[in-house]
């Protein structure tokens, strides 16, 4: 078992970036997003919204026509034309068991494209086919299912009882960075990095907040794309930073409601404040 360290505000501040005078939207980084489905259109809206709010040069969204419409209704800044991207967010709001054949091909194509990937929910089964730094973002039930599908015996109760050990095991067996969601989020990689992020508020336990986390992380990965060649392990730090930003945005959102409940979109709405404070130092 490795040693786990709580990721701090100072750590997170090293992994956010603002554009400068040399930048344009493409140099900042484009995030390709394949999320959502007829069954779960909201997951696409939430992830795309969160990516925009985190700060990214462009979000290219690809999904069913009706889902594209709701994404564009919420965020007309989103581009739905295919094109080059610097990172992918794949799988939120997709049911791997009912994935259309063409979508499976598109997801595999993205994983083979050589750019970093954030792999969530209905894309998790494709882990192992990645060709660039990749982080998986399961919750405990998803991690259990993934490990069982690779003939690694475990139960949901075991994963929930010792998330640190199972996140480490998954990183080693699957050779991928792992962000295991929960009240304490565990982020680790096969090279020995181990970080925890303790959620600031348990109001985060509501539908769609994980989809928002995916969007935050996707945007951070896209905007740091130029660091991956020299620092392939950057994805683990970016994942911990995304979890920290997510938790802090939820805290501020809840405070705005006198400690009251927070919805997933409220978390996304408060991400710019957190990024701004991190940049100001
Ligand atoms: N707005 C959106 O578009 C949103 C979209 N989302 C997207 O949804 C997709 C599925 O992700 P998920 O994590 O929700 O489901 P998943 O891991 O398959 O676990 C299912 C398990 O839950 C259990 N279960 C169900 N109801 C229960 C109950 N009342 N009380 C207790 N247990 C209950 C159920 O158990 P069962 O009913 O079979 O006994 C089963 O074991 C994913 O793509 C995600 O991105 C979400 O982010 C939400 C917002
Ligand atoms: N009890 C809890 N306290 C604080 N945060 C939690 C708790 N349970 C879950 N979370 C966080 O809420 C988010 C839920 O994500 P996820 O399980 O993917 O939900 P969804 O699929 O509905 O988006 C994760 O960021 C997770 O770390």
UniProtKB/TrEMBL annotation:
One of its GO terms (biological process) is metabolite repair. InterPro entries: CARKD, Ribokinase-like. Its EC number is 4.2.1.136. Residues 8-278 form the YjeF C-terminal domain. It comes from the Bacteria. (6S)-NADPHX binds at residues 43, 93, 139, 211. It is an enzyme of class 4 (lyase). PROSITE patterns: YJEF_C_3. Belongs to the NnrD/CARKD family. Catalyzes the dehydration of the S-form of NAD(P)HX at the expense of ADP, which is converted to AMP. Together with NAD(P)HX epimerase, which catalyzes the epimerization of the S- and R-forms, the enzyme allows the repair of both epimers of NAD(P)HX, a damaged form of NAD(P)H that is a result of enzymatic or heat-dependent hydration. PANTHER family: ATP-DEPENDENT (S)-NAD(P)H-HYDRATE DEHYDRATASE, ATP-DEPENDENT (S)-NAD(P)H-HYDRATE DEHYDRATASE FAMILY MEMBER. Homotetramer. This is ADP-dependent (S)-NAD(P)H-hydrate dehydratase. It comes from Agromyces tardus. The lineage of its organism: Bacteria, Bacillati, Actinomycetota, Actinomycetes, Micrococcales.
